[in-house]
């Protein structure tokens, strides 16, 4: 495996040199308190760099409000001062959407961390935007329930960030994404107004569902300060298996068959031998069963899970072997082969990241051809393919030489678009894909998104350089 040079040109490094005048900082201190206005480089540098290391900016300052009222006051300050804000949760986003490339003032949600008692009668919980996904999961579990959003960044990613990006994750195939769990939000709009609907009514047809609109808006319409989330019952049993296949073709065909046959699949992840090999190499893990491709499958329910899994594997062509997790620690070990892909790939240097959805029938031809097409542009490129097969969502990561990056981005996005797919399945657009949004959204849709944005944020103070392309 060839690692790309560390100084890759598609890394975007920007220090606009914007610093706030003393009186502007004093006004912020008066809102959030002296200790919660950060200006020192030591604190700002990590907050100004994205998780992948591809985007490196420089915030003018960071503020840590502790309440919705303080957030509203910060938004009011930005409007008066003509300053740009950028909301930041756990900073685990993968598209540069929380990286202050234009000297924005970061609004950290780390102190919006309230958690209410789980409402057992309605199976829901209300939390602050800065609470991590893992904390919500653990809180729900202590009440005997489950929060069904889950992904590898769970310990750091926040509820607010997951709402802003409409995060999907490994259980999407069964429960849908964040939007499906979102019953209500509290948020400060770009106008400075607060909307608050944390009543958590499952059925409520009283006009526009603003929580759904904010979900996936990537911080461009509002700062989410709290949310009411749907919880689900915990299954009595979970069975996890790693199944090896003689080809990616067989694995994809099996995945489609299994989803059509079983109602109990909770996760269905595709990996290839090169990606699993890289994870093993980077984290000194033992090689699992030898195969050209793998499916990590999880079924959950009350009983007969062994039988269910056995029947699924029995009816499938191309299986070379399987390993079933007998207990929770074995389950976690199997999941590492999948969850550590992102980290292992990043260790070789920031890749070009493509997070795409394809119609089911296009999956196979795309997987068969994309690596060689990329090599046609850059014969030194390495293409890694893995992802949430059950949702038609692939993560394609490419390590390439510097001057080929732009051409590879165009190639992959155009190919996805030609096949009727989406250029972002779950990570969002951020700054990384703004220039390609027109491949998925029509001119009319883009114009209407711009109008909606202008209505929520007339002065353009919230994440002004994220999501929508420039005029
Ligand atoms: C190892 C790894 C695995 C991942 N796996 C998945 C996966 O399986 N599925 C998936 O969907 N994502 C995945 N991600 C991406 C990421 O974790 C999610 O997008 C997550 O939801 C981001 O949450 P965050 O708190 O870190 O947000 P941040 O990175 O801080 O911000 C992301 C965006 O949301 C905005 N934002 C943050 N908080 C708020 C708020 N309170 N109000 C308004 N806007 C806000 C930011 O301005 C930015 O535009 C993964 C990331 C990593 C590093």
Give the helix level as a range of percent. Answer: 25-40%
Count of individual beta strands = 19
Q: What structural class is derived from the secondary structure elements? A: alpha+beta
Strand order of the largest sheet: 2-4-6-5
Radius of gyration: 22 Å
Number of helices: 16
Uncertain parts: 1-5
Kindly state the mean pLDDT as a whole number?
95
Quaternary arrangement of the chains shown? Answer: single chain
Shape: globular
Quick one: biggest sheet?
4 strands, mixed
Beta fraction of the residues?
15-25%
What binds here, in terms of ligands, is: flavin-adenine dinucleotide
Measure the end-to-end span.
Answer: 41 Å
Structure description:
The structure is a single chain. With 471 residues, this protein is α+β, with helices and mostly antiparallel strands. It has 16 helices and 19 strands. It has helices at residues 22-32, 41-47, 68-81, 133-142, 159-165, 172-175, 178-181, 210-214, 248-261, 273-283, 305-314, 328-339, 341-347, 360-377, 405-418, 443-456, and strands at residues 12-13, 37-38, 55-56, 61-63, 85-88, 105-108, 124-128, 145-146, 182-189, 194-196, 222-230, 232-233, 237-245, 265-272, 293-301, 319-324, 352-357, 382-388, 393-399. Helix 9 (248-261) runs antiparallel to helix 14. It starts with 11 loop residues before the first strand and ends in a 15-residue tail after the last helix. The structure holds flavin-adenine dinucleotide. Residues 51, 86-94, 97-98, 109, 129, 151-153, 157-158, 160-162, 164-165, 167-169, 218-219, 223-224, 342-343, 426-427, 430, 463, 466 line the site of flavin-adenine dinucleotide.
């Amino acid at each position: 495996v060839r690692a790309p040079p560390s100084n890759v040109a598609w890394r975007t490094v920007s220090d606009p040199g914007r610093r706030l005048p003393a009186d502007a900082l004093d006004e912020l201190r008066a809102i959030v308190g002296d200790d919660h206005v950060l200006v020192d480089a030591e604190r700002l540098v990590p907050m100004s760099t994205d998780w992948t290391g591809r985007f490196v900016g420089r915030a003018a300052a960071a503020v840590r409000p502790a309440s919705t009222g303080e957030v509203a006051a910060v938004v009011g300050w930005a409007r008066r001062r003509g300053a740009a804000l950028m909301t930041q949760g756990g900073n685990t986003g993968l598209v540069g959407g929380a990286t202050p490339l234009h000297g924005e003032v970061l609004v950290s949600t780390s102190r919006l961390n309230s958690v209410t008692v789980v409402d057992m009668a309605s199976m829901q919980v209300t939390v602050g935007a800065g609470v991590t996904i893992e904390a919500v999961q653990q809180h729900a579990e202590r009440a005997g329930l489950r929060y069904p959003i889950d992904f590898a960044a769970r310990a750091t990613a926040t509820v607010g960030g997951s709402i802003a990006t409409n995060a999907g994750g490994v259980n999407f195939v069964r429960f849908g994404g964040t939007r499906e769990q979102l019953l209500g939000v509290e948020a400060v709009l770009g106008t400075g107004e607060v909307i608050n609907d944390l009543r958590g009514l499952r059925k409520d047809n009283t006009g526009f569902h603003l929580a759904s609109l904010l979900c996936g808006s990537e911080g461009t319409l509002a700062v989410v300060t709290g949310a009411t989330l749907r919880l689900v019952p915990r299954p009595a049993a979970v069975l996890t298996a790693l199944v090896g296949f003689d080809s990616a073709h067989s694995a994809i065909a099996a995945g489609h068959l299994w989803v059509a046959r079983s109602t109990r699949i909770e996760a269905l992840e595709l990996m290839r031998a090169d990606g699993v090999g890289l994870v093993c190499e980077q984290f000194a893990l033992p090689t699992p069963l030898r195969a050209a491709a793998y499916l990590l499958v999880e079924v959950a329910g009350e009983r007969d899970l062994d039988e269910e899994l056995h029947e699924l594997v029995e009816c499938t062509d191309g299986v070379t072997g399987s390993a079933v997790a007998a207990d929770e620690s074995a389950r976690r070990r199997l999941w590492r082969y999948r969850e550590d892909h992102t980290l292992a790939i990043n260790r070789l240097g920031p890749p070009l990241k493509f997070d795409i959805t394809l119609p089911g029938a296009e999956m196979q031809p795309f997987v068969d051809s994309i690596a060689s097409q990329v090599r046609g542009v850059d014969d030194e490129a390495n293409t890694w393919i893995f992802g949430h097969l059950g949702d038609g969502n692939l993560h394609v990561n490419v390590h390439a030489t510097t001057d080929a990056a732009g051409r590879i981005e165009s190639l992959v996005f155009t190919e996805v678009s030609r096949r009727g797919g989406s250029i972002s399945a779950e990570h969002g657009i951020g700054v990384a894909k703004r220039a390609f949004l027109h491949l998925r959204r029509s001119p009319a849709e883009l114009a209407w998104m711009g109008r909606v944005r202008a209505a929520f944020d007339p002065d353009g103070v919230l994440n002004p350089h994220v999501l929508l392309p420039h005029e």
